[in-house]
Write a structure and sequence with these properties.
- This protein is an alpha/beta fold.
- It is 30% helix and 30% strand.
- It has ten helices and twelve strands.
- It has helices spanning 58-72, 88-93, 109-118, 120-123, 138-141, 169-178, 195-211, 247-251, 262-267, 273-281; strands at residues 4-8, 14-27, 32-38, 42-47, 50-54, 78-83, 101-105, 131-134, 149-155, 179-188, 214-221, 229-236.
- The strands form two sheets. It has a seven-stranded mixed beta sheet with strand order 8-7-6-9-10-12-11, with helices on both faces. Strands 1-2-3-4-5 form a five-stranded antiparallel beta sheet.
- The termini are far apart.
- It binds S-adenosylmethionine (SAM).
- S-adenosylmethionine is lined by residues 30, 47, 52-53, 61, 82-86, 105-108, 111, 137-139, 155-157, 162-163, 165-166, 188.
- Its EC number is 2.5.1.16.
- Spermidine binds at residues 62, 86, 155-158.
- It comes from Caldisalinibacter kiritimatiensis.
- This is Polyamine aminopropyltransferase.
Length: 282
Protein backbone atom coordinates (compact mmCIF):
# COMPACT_ATOMS: atom_id res chain seq x y z
CA UNK A 1 0.00 0.00 0.00
CA UNK A 2 1.31 3.48 -0.88
CA UNK A 3 1.86 5.81 2.05
CA UNK A 4 1.80 9.61 1.57
CA UNK A 5 2.56 12.45 4.01
CA UNK A 6 0.07 15.27 3.55
CA UNK A 7 0.15 18.70 5.15
CA UNK A 8 -2.65 21.23 4.87
CA UNK A 9 -1.12 24.55 3.82
CA UNK A 10 -4.52 26.27 3.82
CA UNK A 11 -8.09 24.99 4.01
CA UNK A 12 -7.92 24.61 0.22
CA UNK A 13 -4.29 23.73 -0.59
CA UNK A 14 -2.27 20.69 0.44
CA UNK A 15 1.31 19.47 0.10
CA UNK A 16 1.95 15.74 -0.31
CA UNK A 17 5.03 13.57 -0.66
CA UNK A 18 5.39 9.80 -0.90
CA UNK A 19 6.68 8.11 2.27
CA UNK A 20 9.27 5.32 2.40
CA UNK A 21 8.93 4.71 6.12
CA UNK A 22 7.52 6.33 9.26
CA UNK A 23 10.60 6.21 11.51
CA UNK A 24 9.57 7.90 14.75
CA UNK A 25 6.45 9.12 16.50
CA UNK A 26 6.31 10.47 20.06
CA UNK A 27 4.24 13.02 21.91
CA UNK A 28 6.11 15.42 24.18
CA UNK A 29 4.44 17.73 26.72
CA UNK A 30 4.66 20.43 24.01
CA UNK A 31 3.93 18.81 20.66
CA UNK A 32 3.71 15.72 18.46
CA UNK A 33 7.18 14.84 17.10
CA UNK A 34 7.54 12.66 13.98
CA UNK A 35 10.32 11.66 11.62
CA UNK A 36 9.45 10.17 8.24
CA UNK A 37 11.67 8.97 5.43
CA UNK A 38 10.52 10.08 1.99
CA UNK A 39 11.57 9.44 -1.62
CA UNK A 40 11.83 13.10 -2.66
CA UNK A 41 13.05 15.00 0.41
CA UNK A 42 14.92 12.36 2.43
CA UNK A 43 14.17 12.36 6.14
CA UNK A 44 11.67 14.95 7.37
CA UNK A 45 11.11 16.18 10.94
CA UNK A 46 7.53 17.29 11.57
CA UNK A 47 6.07 18.94 14.68
CA UNK A 48 2.31 18.77 15.14
CA UNK A 49 2.06 17.61 11.52
CA UNK A 50 4.02 20.55 10.06
CA UNK A 51 7.32 20.21 8.21
CA UNK A 52 10.21 21.74 10.17
CA UNK A 53 13.24 20.32 8.40
CA UNK A 54 13.89 18.08 5.42
CA UNK A 55 17.27 16.64 4.48
CA UNK A 56 16.88 17.99 0.96
CA UNK A 57 16.18 21.69 1.54
CA UNK A 58 17.40 22.40 5.10
CA UNK A 59 20.57 24.01 3.71
CA UNK A 60 18.53 26.89 2.30
CA UNK A 61 16.89 27.76 5.62
CA UNK A 62 20.03 27.32 7.73
CA UNK A 63 22.30 29.24 5.36
CA UNK A 64 19.95 32.18 5.30
CA UNK A 65 19.16 32.26 9.02
CA UNK A 66 22.87 32.49 9.96
CA UNK A 67 25.14 33.89 7.25
CA UNK A 68 23.28 37.15 6.58
CA UNK A 69 23.87 38.38 10.14
CA UNK A 70 27.36 36.89 10.35
CA UNK A 71 28.37 38.65 7.13
CA UNK A 72 26.93 41.96 8.37
CA UNK A 73 28.93 41.87 11.60
CA UNK A 74 32.13 39.78 11.56
CA UNK A 75 32.73 40.63 15.25
CA UNK A 76 29.88 38.44 16.51
CA UNK A 77 31.28 36.37 19.37
CA UNK A 78 28.34 35.41 21.57
CA UNK A 79 25.19 33.97 20.05
CA UNK A 80 21.84 32.88 21.46
CA UNK A 81 19.66 30.49 19.41
CA UNK A 82 16.06 30.18 20.56
CA UNK A 83 14.32 27.03 19.31
CA UNK A 84 16.33 25.40 16.54
CA UNK A 85 16.22 21.92 18.13
CA UNK A 86 17.18 20.16 14.89
CA UNK A 87 20.65 21.76 15.26
CA UNK A 88 21.00 23.14 11.71
CA UNK A 89 21.41 26.76 12.84
CA UNK A 90 24.05 25.80 15.41
CA UNK A 91 25.86 23.72 12.77
CA UNK A 92 26.23 26.76 10.51
CA UNK A 93 27.32 29.01 13.40
CA UNK A 94 30.07 26.59 14.47
CA UNK A 95 31.73 27.13 11.10
CA UNK A 96 32.89 30.57 12.29
CA UNK A 97 36.05 30.24 14.38
CA UNK A 98 35.43 33.81 15.60
CA UNK A 99 32.33 32.75 17.56
CA UNK A 100 33.25 31.98 21.17
CA UNK A 101 29.94 30.97 22.73
CA UNK A 102 26.62 29.61 21.47
CA UNK A 103 23.70 29.15 23.86
CA UNK A 104 20.75 27.24 22.43
CA UNK A 105 17.46 27.32 24.29
CA UNK A 106 15.02 24.72 23.04
CA UNK A 107 11.76 24.16 24.93
CA UNK A 108 11.38 20.54 23.82
CA UNK A 109 14.19 18.07 24.57
CA UNK A 110 12.44 15.44 22.46
CA UNK A 111 13.11 17.48 19.27
CA UNK A 112 16.84 17.37 20.00
CA UNK A 113 16.67 13.67 20.88
CA UNK A 114 14.85 12.77 17.65
CA UNK A 115 17.17 14.97 15.58
CA UNK A 116 20.30 13.44 17.11
CA UNK A 117 18.97 9.97 16.34
CA UNK A 118 17.60 10.52 12.83
CA UNK A 119 19.00 13.79 11.47
CA UNK A 120 22.78 13.82 12.01
CA UNK A 121 22.97 16.09 8.95
CA UNK A 122 21.61 18.97 11.06
CA UNK A 123 22.38 17.89 14.64
CA UNK A 124 26.04 16.91 14.20
CA UNK A 125 27.51 20.04 15.82
CA UNK A 126 25.32 20.22 18.92
CA UNK A 127 28.20 18.73 20.90
CA UNK A 128 30.68 21.43 19.83
CA UNK A 129 32.51 22.65 22.93
CA UNK A 130 31.28 26.24 22.42
CA UNK A 131 27.63 25.11 22.54
CA UNK A 132 25.54 25.02 25.73
CA UNK A 133 22.06 23.51 25.47
CA UNK A 134 19.24 24.70 27.73
CA UNK A 135 15.92 22.88 27.70
CA UNK A 136 13.77 25.82 28.73
CA UNK A 137 11.25 28.27 27.40
CA UNK A 138 13.13 30.87 25.34
CA UNK A 139 10.61 33.54 26.35
CA UNK A 140 11.56 33.18 30.03
CA UNK A 141 15.26 32.69 29.25
CA UNK A 142 15.71 36.20 27.82
CA UNK A 143 13.73 37.97 30.56
CA UNK A 144 16.72 38.61 32.83
CA UNK A 145 19.50 38.91 30.24
CA UNK A 146 21.26 42.21 29.65
CA UNK A 147 23.95 43.12 27.14
CA UNK A 148 25.02 39.48 26.72
CA UNK A 149 24.65 38.45 23.08
CA UNK A 150 25.91 39.92 19.79
CA UNK A 151 23.35 37.91 17.85
CA UNK A 152 20.03 36.30 18.76
CA UNK A 153 18.51 33.88 16.24
CA UNK A 154 14.88 32.96 16.80
CA UNK A 155 14.56 29.66 14.94
CA UNK A 156 11.00 29.03 15.99
CA UNK A 157 7.84 27.21 15.07
CA UNK A 158 4.83 29.25 13.90
CA UNK A 159 3.06 31.62 16.31
CA UNK A 160 0.82 28.89 17.70
CA UNK A 161 1.46 26.61 20.70
CA UNK A 162 4.84 27.05 22.45
CA UNK A 163 6.10 29.39 19.70
CA UNK A 164 3.32 31.97 20.15
CA UNK A 165 5.16 34.05 22.77
CA UNK A 166 8.20 34.35 20.48
CA UNK A 167 6.23 36.74 18.28
CA UNK A 168 5.30 39.32 20.95
CA UNK A 169 6.46 42.88 21.59
CA UNK A 170 7.48 41.96 25.13
CA UNK A 171 9.74 39.16 23.88
CA UNK A 172 11.37 41.45 21.30
CA UNK A 173 11.90 44.08 24.02
CA UNK A 174 13.70 41.50 26.20
CA UNK A 175 15.81 40.44 23.20
CA UNK A 176 16.74 44.10 22.60
CA UNK A 177 17.91 44.32 26.22
CA UNK A 178 19.83 41.02 25.96
CA UNK A 179 21.75 42.26 22.91
CA UNK A 180 25.05 44.15 22.95
CA UNK A 181 25.53 47.59 21.38
CA UNK A 182 25.87 46.29 17.80
CA UNK A 183 23.39 43.48 18.43
CA UNK A 184 21.33 41.80 15.69
CA UNK A 185 18.19 39.70 15.96
CA UNK A 186 17.15 37.36 13.14
CA UNK A 187 13.77 35.69 13.37
CA UNK A 188 11.67 33.16 11.49
CA UNK A 189 9.19 35.68 10.07
CA UNK A 190 6.60 33.53 8.26
CA UNK A 191 5.47 33.88 4.64
CA UNK A 192 3.77 36.64 2.67
CA UNK A 193 1.79 34.38 0.39
CA UNK A 194 -1.12 32.61 2.08
CA UNK A 195 -3.43 34.79 4.14
CA UNK A 196 -2.89 33.25 7.59
CA UNK A 197 0.92 33.24 7.27
CA UNK A 198 0.89 36.76 5.78
CA UNK A 199 -1.10 38.12 8.72
CA UNK A 200 1.42 36.56 11.13
CA UNK A 201 4.27 38.05 9.11
CA UNK A 202 2.78 41.55 9.13
CA UNK A 203 2.11 41.39 12.88
CA UNK A 204 5.64 40.14 13.66
CA UNK A 205 7.30 42.78 11.47
CA UNK A 206 5.20 45.58 12.98
CA UNK A 207 6.12 44.55 16.52
CA UNK A 208 9.82 44.32 15.65
CA UNK A 209 9.60 47.87 14.28
CA UNK A 210 8.14 49.08 17.58
CA UNK A 211 11.28 47.94 19.38
CA UNK A 212 14.27 48.06 16.98
CA UNK A 213 15.49 51.13 15.03
CA UNK A 214 16.49 49.02 12.02
CA UNK A 215 14.11 46.34 10.76
CA UNK A 216 14.37 44.74 7.33
CA UNK A 217 12.77 41.62 5.95
CA UNK A 218 14.54 39.25 3.56
CA UNK A 219 13.33 36.34 1.51
CA UNK A 220 14.40 32.88 0.43
CA UNK A 221 12.96 29.92 -1.44
CA UNK A 222 11.85 27.06 0.79
CA UNK A 223 10.31 24.30 -1.33
CA UNK A 224 8.69 22.38 1.55
CA UNK A 225 7.15 25.33 3.43
CA UNK A 226 3.70 26.64 2.47
CA UNK A 227 3.96 28.45 -0.90
CA UNK A 228 7.76 27.96 -0.97
CA UNK A 229 8.28 31.69 -0.34
CA UNK A 230 9.56 32.39 3.17
CA UNK A 231 10.93 35.39 5.10
CA UNK A 232 13.33 36.14 7.89
CA UNK A 233 13.32 39.37 9.87
CA UNK A 234 16.58 41.28 10.45
CA UNK A 235 16.34 43.67 13.39
CA UNK A 236 19.26 45.53 14.86
CA UNK A 237 20.33 48.27 17.21
CA UNK A 238 22.85 49.90 14.85
CA UNK A 239 23.99 47.82 11.91
CA UNK A 240 22.29 47.76 8.51
CA UNK A 241 22.36 44.48 6.55
CA UNK A 242 23.34 46.17 3.28
CA UNK A 243 25.15 49.39 4.29
CA UNK A 244 27.35 47.60 6.83
CA UNK A 245 27.88 44.51 4.69
CA UNK A 246 31.28 43.95 3.09
CA UNK A 247 31.13 41.16 0.48
CA UNK A 248 34.93 40.89 0.10
CA UNK A 249 35.32 40.53 3.85
CA UNK A 250 32.90 37.58 3.98
CA UNK A 251 34.29 35.98 0.81
CA UNK A 252 37.79 36.08 2.29
CA UNK A 253 36.61 33.60 4.96
CA UNK A 254 36.30 30.96 2.18
CA UNK A 255 33.27 29.30 3.74
CA UNK A 256 31.62 26.95 1.26
CA UNK A 257 27.85 27.43 1.20
CA UNK A 258 25.29 25.83 -1.08
CA UNK A 259 22.62 28.59 -1.07
CA UNK A 260 24.02 31.74 0.55
CA UNK A 261 26.46 33.89 -1.38
CA UNK A 262 27.19 37.59 -1.29
CA UNK A 263 24.93 38.34 -4.30
CA UNK A 264 22.03 36.50 -2.62
CA UNK A 265 22.74 38.53 0.54
CA UNK A 266 21.96 41.78 -1.28
CA UNK A 267 19.23 40.36 -3.54
CA UNK A 268 17.29 38.77 -0.68
CA UNK A 269 16.38 42.22 0.66
CA UNK A 270 14.78 43.24 -2.68
CA UNK A 271 11.16 42.35 -1.99
CA UNK A 272 8.29 41.93 -4.46
CA UNK A 273 5.94 44.92 -4.62
CA UNK A 274 3.03 43.16 -2.90
CA UNK A 275 5.26 42.19 0.04
CA UNK A 276 6.67 45.71 0.36
CA UNK A 277 3.14 47.12 0.37
CA UNK A 278 1.98 44.61 2.99
CA UNK A 279 4.84 45.64 5.29
CA UNK A 280 4.47 49.39 4.63
CA UNK A 281 0.71 49.33 5.18
CA UNK A 282 1.04 47.13 8.31
N1 LIG B 1 12.78 25.44 10.62
C1 LIG B 1 11.58 25.41 11.35
C2 LIG B 1 10.42 26.12 10.70
O1 LIG B 1 10.46 27.31 10.42
O2 LIG B 1 9.42 25.44 10.47
C3 LIG B 1 11.74 25.77 12.74
C4 LIG B 1 12.69 24.84 13.43
S1 LIG B 1 11.95 23.94 14.71
C5 LIG B 1 13.31 22.99 15.22
C6 LIG B 1 11.61 25.19 15.90
C7 LIG B 1 11.79 24.79 17.35
O3 LIG B 1 11.34 25.87 18.17
C8 LIG B 1 11.01 23.56 17.79
O4 LIG B 1 11.90 22.54 18.07
C9 LIG B 1 10.23 24.02 19.03
O5 LIG B 1 10.21 23.06 20.06
C10 LIG B 1 11.01 25.27 19.42
N2 LIG B 1 10.24 26.22 20.23
C11 LIG B 1 8.95 26.61 20.06
N3 LIG B 1 8.60 27.48 21.02
C12 LIG B 1 9.69 27.65 21.82
C13 LIG B 1 9.95 28.44 22.98
N4 LIG B 1 9.01 29.20 23.53
N5 LIG B 1 11.19 28.38 23.52
C14 LIG B 1 12.18 27.61 22.97
N6 LIG B 1 11.98 26.84 21.89
C15 LIG B 1 10.76 26.87 21.31
Amino acid sequence: MELWYTEEHTDYAKFSTKVKKHLYSEKSPFQQVDVIDTYEYGKILTLDGLVMVTEKDEFIYHDMITHVAMATNPDIKRVLVIGGGDGGTVRELTRYSTIEKIDMVEIDELVVKASKEFLPITSNKLDDERVTLYFEDGIKFVEDKENQYDLIIVDSTDPIGPGEGLFTREFYRNCFKALTENGILVNQNESPYYERDAKAMIRATGKLKDIFPTVEVYQFHMPTYPSGHWLFGFASKKLHPIKDFDADRWNSLNLKTKYYNTDIHVGAFALPTYVKEMIENG
